[in-house]
Amino acid sequence: MKRVAFVSAATAALVAIMGSAAFASQYVAYEGPGFSGRSVTIDKCGTSNIPFHGSYKWYGDGQSGRMYNQPNAEGVMHFELASNRYAEQRTPVGWQSIFIVC
C-alpha cells in the first residue's frame, strides 16, 4: 500500500513540474524551399549545426537565436532572431549553425 502511495505522489509531482515548464524557442530547418522536404527542429540551448538550408521557421518563445554562416557558431554572428517574435523564410538560407541563448 505504501508503494502505491509513493508512486502516485511521484507521478503527481512530475505532472505538476512538467505542466509549469516553460517553452523554448525553436528553429525549424527545412530541406527544400517553401517549407518542403524533410525538417529538423532545433530547440536546445547552445550551439547546433543546421543540417538543412532550403527554408526555415523561427518560433521565438523566450530565447534568441544567434545565426552563423560557419559550423559550430564560429566566426562573426551574422544575424540574431528575436526572442519574442516569429520569423520565416521560404527561400534558401546560408546559415550553417545557431546558438540559442538560454
UniProtKB/TrEMBL annotation:
Coiled-coil blocks: none
Record's signal peptide: 1-24
Pfam families (UniProt xref): MiAMP1
GO biological process, any: negative regulation of growth
Top-level taxon of origin: Bacteria
Stored InterPro entries: Antimic/Inh_G_crystallin-like (IPR015791), Antimicrobial_MiAMP1 (IPR015201), G_crystallin-like (IPR011024)
Keywords carried by this UniProt record: Signal
The protein's name in its UniProt record: MiAMP1 protein
Organism: Sphaerisporangium rufum
